[in-house]
Amino acid sequence: MALHFGESIFGIDLIKEWLCISESLFFDESTSNWDLINPVYIAALDRNNVNSAIELEKKYCDHIEEFHNSRTSKDGYGNNGYDNGKCNPKHYNPQNEGCDFGLCLFTEPNGRVAGSSISSNMHSDGFNLFISNSHDLPMHADSYGYVTIHEMFHIYQYSNLNKAASRDDLMKIVGKLGTGTNSADEVPWWIEGNAVFFGYYKYAQLVDDNEWFINKMRYPIDGSKDSLKSKYLSSGKKINDFTWNGEEKEIGYELGAWFIAYMIDIFGEESIYNFWENLEEEGSFDKAFTKYFSKEYELYMDDFDEFLRKPDSEILELLDRIY
Ligand SMILES: [Zn+2]
């Protein structure tokens, strides 16, 4: 794993620490598919310093050009990140795409520093890229924990998919595409609900702070009439209909995490790992879901809404049961 520029030495230490912990949480099994996990590049960005992000894009692209370039690649996997992504100037011109700050890889078109994400496809690029945005220290040290776990969980999800596939097929099998009522929409409820939930859950367990866990999970269910839960229930839509657009994203992520908590309460934590580790063998999202959670995902949508309509105090009791 390689890294950094711009991020503080304290932030870098925290990223390293939480990476090691995430590795022992999700990648220590004999079944871990290391060919699809390593290398993980970490772009440790200072969110208040866009120039350092632009400098890091240059260093990163020099590395990608040398080591993940189809012209020189001998690897079994695609290893073509240089041509796929934004590094090769022959394939990508930032100005033409409305990007005036760097490459809009570690930056945003509006000149801000990019947020945390996994921005790569191991099969075609030949590496995983974890973009890590800094958090204020010491106040937000917890963010380094749960955000790193969240992003490593994404690497875990995709590391179970051995077969090369088109982007659409990959998005379909992980449930990002084709599980909404409008099958053309990309929807975060499952893929992000998983990562948000495990970010909170594992962080809280590791620092032994049930109260922190309850506070994080309570945020969308805070009893107010503007809570995400109220907005969600009055929307007339199901959790799998929320997209990445505008305000929808937060509902998809945070109530998606509640959907995972709801499933873990019924089927246990192992069921989620079983789902991911056998997903490819089952052949499709729908088949794997039905196998590990007893019935089709569509049938849980009303059950989940019924659960959310219970009094908040009753909903929150779930957290003590699964912690
Ligand atoms: Zn995510």
Q: What does the model show?
A:
- With 323 residues, the chain is mainly alpha-helical.
- It has 2 domains: 9-159, no CATH class; 169-322.
- Helix content is 53%, strand content 4%.
- It contains 14 helices and 3 strands.
- Strands 1-3-2 form a 3-stranded mixed β-sheet, sandwiched between helices.
- Helix 9 (228-235) packs across helix 10 (248-267) and helix 10 (248-267) crosses helix 14.
- It is globular.
- The mean pLDDT is 93.
- Zinc ion is lined by residues 150, 154, 192, 195.
- Zinc ion binds at residues 150, 154, 192, 195.
Bound molecules: zinc ion
How are strands sequenced across the largest beta sheet?
A: 1-3-2
Q: What would the average pLDDT be, to the nearest integer?
A: 93
Give the class from helix and strand content and strand pairing: mainly alpha
Biggest β-sheet description: 3 strands, mixed
Helix content: 40-55%
**Envelope shape:** globular
Count of strand segments? 3
- If helices are DSSP runs of H or I spanning 4 or more residues, what is the number of helices? 14
Radius of gyration: 20 Å
- Estimate what percentage of residues fall within beta strands: under 5%
Defining traits:
323 residues, mainly alpha, three-stranded mixed beta sheet, globular, binds zinc ion
